[in-house]
Amino acid sequence: MKLPTPSRSWFLLQVAVGWLPMWVLFTLMIMSVHAFPFGASAWMGLRMIASAAVLGIGVHALTRRFPWPAPFRWWFPALHIAAALVYAALWVLSYSLVESVLRWRLVYMDGPGIGRFLLTGIWLYLTITAVAYAQQAAQRTALAQAAAARAQLAALQAQLHPHFLFNALHTVVQLIPFDPARAATAAEQLAALLRAALDERRDQVTLAEEWRFVQRYLAIEQLRFGERLQVETALPEPVLGLRVPAFALQTLVENAVRHGAAMKVDATRLAISATTEGKDLRLMVSDDGVGADPQAMLHSSGTGLRRLRERLACLYGSSATLDIDASPLGVTATLAIPATAGDMHDD
């Protein structure tokens, strides 16, 4: 998996911020060992850290050129042992060069002091590589989560339930002899619904876009159920510009239709609402159908709710929740996600 390359300015900012704690550490060490005042210790520590940080840019490039191998390779530790020795030697030489320029005389290290400097340089190299590989691991995890979310999106796109497609086509066929105009309208709505499902490639859309998609879905289902499916909505204008996972509301509505209206002979009332509570957006879909077991609905293999819950974990982590409240009087599904604004896109 190829990791994205950060912009130069962002990378340099990370380097500068990342070396600040090391500068503080070196300053304190110099004050402790040499009993220098703070100002002199900080200036000396800065000279040491500056050369180490510049050389560290090359170490970052090396870790990107040779990422952590899987499976582990014998040459990997050998490469970094050699690189650590080279880094330590260059650090000592660069520091001596900086001191020589600042003091206008040749400054070089010999005796026991150079050994301590070389060991410190090796330690710096190991610290830089550890941080670099940890960042790469975090990037790979984020990319894997994004890929998982896209896979769940694709699954939901493919999941516009086969039974729904069959029933929609059957509704169109039944309408043709008796009401050709309604049959043509139903066919156009079905085509628009499928086109929107197949064309959508974003992980997130605005609630307004999601609601337009759900309206197409409900229009076809209402042709099928007629007056048996009654829909009430409460979607205030301010919340329509907030972002939601693509097909999230459609999944909740489809679940209510399948487990509510489809299983009930009498009319079923479907209530769809969206509100903001604090920093969260809450979507709620309830029906007064026959009810269901909430745990079975969430964990049943192949269900859209299970896939939706997995996508929420990928997109928001623990910041999103999906709760199912079921009783003999119906089912209420409540989705809570962080409220984030998004651009509007008209069809």
Automatic annotation (TrEMBL):
> Domain named Signal transduction histidine kinase internal region: which ranges?
151-229
GO molecular function term, any single one: phosphorelay sensor kinase activity
Q: What is this protein called?
A: Signal transduction histidine kinase internal region domain-containing protein
Give one Pfam family: His_kinase
Q: Name one GO cellular component term.
A: membrane
Keywords noted in UniProt: Membrane, Transmembrane, Transmembrane helix
Q: Where are the transmembrane segments?
A: 12-36, 42-62, 74-94, 114-134
Give the taxonomic lineage as stored in the record.
Bacteria, Pseudomonadati, Pseudomonadota, Betaproteobacteria, Burkholderiales
Organism, as annotated: Pseudoduganella ginsengisoli
